Amino acid sequence: MVRNRRPSKQMLSLLDALSAKPHEWRHGYDIMKETGLLSGTLYPLLMRMTDQGLVEAEWHEPAQPGKPPRHAYRLTAQGLALARETAGAPSVSQFKEATV
Amino acid sequence: MTANLARALMTLAEACLGGRRREWSAAMRAEFEFAIDEGKPLTFAAGCLIGALREMPKHAEGRFRLASHAVVLGLFPAAALLLLGTATGFPFLPSGHAGISGWFAASGAPAHLLTPWNRGFAPALAVLIWALVAGHLLMPWFVLERNWDRVATLARVNAAATISLFLFTAALFLDMAFMVLPVAALVVELSTIWFLYQWQAQLFTGAPPGASPA
Fold first, then answer.
1. What is the ipTM of this complex?
2. Mean pLDDT of all residues in chain A?
3. Got the DSSP string for A55-75?
4. How many CB atoms lie within 10 A of CB B87?
5. Which pTM was predicted?
6. Least CA distance to A69: which residue of chain B?
């Protein structure tokens, strides 16, 4: 069931980070370092946003030998639209209702 | 030590996410390797576990797993009470008092429930009770493994042990009040297990024991 609710501060931070280079695939640990989100916040958020069609994910072969394949993420067109809609909003109270 | 603890937490987080989120478990596991390189495996793993736990109530499989653990934790006190009973003497619940009412009122006069002629049966009854305790202690593991063949077998053994205890108690003219706890434990155990079985049958149709839905 899709609910209308305001994006959380964490979600805005993630949208902001992913929309900076919208066509670039990003890895979870790199997003954590950039946004300051902890793994316990980032992964549930990524799962939810992927379920909602805001984020797409795919597996990438490891850049270093001996490392496992990595899951990479980027915004979908819908996610990018939401990121642009919420970009620059200084406070949560000014957010429009968004389908997230 | 820290890395091992972090790996254990990651394994727990993956188990909490279940089959529905297998891909995300693998994603977290892959990033965990980079957290190790950065020297922060424990923070990363603890976060993953917290995130996974928070996800559990949001989907049917997670709710089933939470309910299974709650039921399992609920079964332990019954077994512990029976075990405590055997430690305080036989018959266990109203030990040293005249029946269960005396035990609750703490005012019953001490009564020797085993008479010289039926005292010889005490070891057999004690063995039965210990078998029942062992059965109740084993049951939670089988339930968590969703090994329903073993659960069914153990349920039959526990039921048989309880009925035997009941018959022995009646035949030896012992105080029947002390059967309240084993019978209640069996009824609670069987009814909750049946409920869980029905629930998992809906969730994991066709899946082998211990498997997660695709």
1. 0.79
2. 83
3. EEEEEE--SSTTSPPEEEEEE
4. 9
5. 0.64
6. B30
